[in-house]
Write a structure and sequence with these properties.
Family: Belongs to the UbiK family.
Number of strands: 0
Pathway: Cofactor biosynthesis; ubiquinone biosynthesis
Keywords: Coiled coil, Cytoplasm, Ubiquinone biosynthesis
Function: Required for efficient ubiquinone (coenzyme Q) biosynthesis. UbiK is probably an accessory factor of Ubi enzymes and facilitates ubiquinone biosynthesis by acting as an assembly factor, a targeting factor, or both.
Mean pLDDT: 84
Main location: cytoplasm
Low-confidence stretches: none
């Protein structure tokens, strides 16, 4: 099971508490943000809204596949019935 990292804002707040002066604090804040953004880009992370959109698309696609499988089974059964009637 993967560990869930702490929220980005919490990490920045903790760093700010460790660092004193305002000038140094803003510099550390900026560098920390750049570091985290760089790490996230390497991890190939997607935005939550994109993930949700893809999840919804997958659910619709799965439902459509189930519908088509049901229709195919009905058509196959109808063809089998016709073939059976022609053999009589």
């Amino acid at each position: 099971m993967a560990l869930k990292p702490p929220p980005f804002g919490d990490m920045i707040q903790q760093v700010n508490q460790l660092v004193g002066g305002e000038g140094l604090r803003s510099e550390v804040d900026r560098n920390a943000r750049l570091l985290v953004q760089s790490a996230l880009q390497r991890l190939d992370v997607v935005a939550r809204d994109e993930f949700d959109a893809q999840t919804e698309l997958l659910a619709r696609t799965q439902e459509r596949v189930r519908t088509l499988e049901s229709e195919l089974a009905a058509l196959t059964a109808a063809i089998d019935d016709l073939e059976a009637q022609q053999k009589r």
